[in-house]
Amino acid sequence: MKGFVFHGTGQAAWEEVPDPAIKDPTDAIVRVDTVTICGTDLHILKGDVPETRPGTVLGHEAVGEVVETANDVHTVGPGDRVLVSCITACGRCGYCWERTYGQCRGGGGWILGRLIDGTQAEYVRVPYADLSLHALPGTVDSKDAVLLADIFPTAYEVGVLNGHVRPGDTVAVVGTGPIGLAAIATARLFAPERIVAVDRAPIRLDAAKHLGADALADAGQAPEQLIADLTDGLGADVVIEAVGAPESFELCTRIVRPGGHVANIGVHGKPVTLHLEALWSKDITLTTGLVDTYSTPTLLRMAAAGRLPASSLVTHTFPLEKMEEAYDVFGRGADTGALKVVLGGEQHEVVAVRAA
């Protein structure tokens, strides 16, 4: 089969790799139908994730069909159409008992495409299949479902729920890439008074408006003043960091109101300064987190009911064998307008699905 193989910083290729095989009694083999590329895949290519070794097939999000299961797999079987979660859960350790699957100590957590071969291939081995695969309703399109493998549960759990978004809140989302856009879409479920989207790219701000942001702020033009004007000088109740850069994190801590929440989603590759000299007296709550995906079943039900605008984030589709081209387009999003790219399914040529 073929897969997209990491060969070291800045180097990867779509090439022949060995077919996956059952190794453990909780494994399943999935034939990949639809995949997407995540910002964390770009972080791996940049060298920000040193534990990923050269030779690893990248990717941690997919929709596909189960072709083989080991003896201890009971919730799915051959022929089932499934969502492959970005998080693998053993289901037996203390963290899994608390539904914090991202911290699994039984061999799970974020392992696909990081510690073991991932989903950007024609087939993938999924450990602990009972908790790491989700059977898909026939009403959920693959293009919608694949975005529920990572970005929607990440935005919802690590951003909206950790940030304790409540009705009537002012919510500021700093960074309107795919994760930030998903945070806007899921924050709306809690009826905030307003959502302010902050970014430097006009095309991403336009997408934020399309998904329900009430106000737009250019990150390079004093967004602090806009948020102060909207909140009588107090600041936002909840600020969601969805970039992973020192300047964006520090902006978040400047625009949160006393007693507010800063929910960090962004993957940080550089040290960040926490200005406690300015924050110690403000009673703020700062949360970080790796997604646990405990919300995936709920999000799937919402998608099946047509209440989650998942595929509206997809701007480009490609066939699987165009993986290298898809990475190039996604990695140059500021030039290409790419928000989320999807590969596979019934697509046979490169298509720009929606101009933001």
UniProtKB/TrEMBL annotation:
Xref: Pfam families: ADH_N, ADH_zinc_N
Alphabetical UniProt keywords: Metal-binding, Oxidoreductase, Zinc
PROSITE patterns: ADH_ZINC (PS00059)
SMART domains: PKS_ER (SM00829)
Cofactor dependence: Zn(2+)
Domain Enoyl reductase (ER): from-to ranges: 8-343
SUPFAM superfamilies the UniProt entry points to: GroES-like, NAD(P)-binding Rossmann-fold domains
Domain of life where this protein originates: Bacteria
Family label: Belongs to the zinc-containing alcohol dehydrogenase family.
Full protein name: Zinc-dependent alcohol dehydrogenase family protein
